[in-house]
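We emphasize that the prediction below concerns an isolated chain of 191 residues; any contacts that depend on oligomerization or on bound cofactors are therefore not represented. The input was used exactly as deposited, without trimming of termini.
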Amino acid sequence: MAKHQIKERSLKIIGGEWRSRVIDFAEDKTIRPTPVRIRETLFNWLQLSVPGARCLELYCGSGILSIEALSRGAKHVTMIDQSREAISKVKQSLKELSADPARYHCEQAFAQNWLSQENSLFDIIFLDPPFESPELESLLPLIKSKHLLSEDGFIYIESPQAILAETLPEGWTIYRNKKAAKVHYCLITKL
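Result of the prediction step, given as a token string:
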């Protein structure tokens, strides 16, 4: 295989300590990793916020957003997915990258159940639920009511439709938003 080719179930890390390293992800057809172009934009938006950040990635799938964050100096990432296979593959990737186990936590759980038990504070929350899932509508109010987002924190969302400011919990606003192909993505922050 040529150096520039990547296997179908693999992703290249685009920045930081592990730049150009490749990770594999689970053979689950529902996993829809964030495309390179979108990741580049997202991490350009977040470049000053990632170093030292505590991150949460719900529906982690491939884990690429958290792994990019770790590669760029995040203090700690928590990755949640309902798929045992997805979590197992993410753990394997982190081990292959020689990531410090004190800097990450991977857990198999349903996003809503996990959030309802959680009380930690996060600086960046990555939300990329399956596009057919209605869960996004209930997750944002839950995150707000449990005060899980730090004062200057960001929530990143990928969705099939644009997120409208009027659908956000009171006191939150869209900081940045963009569209690439059929994917709408945005950063939300507190007013």
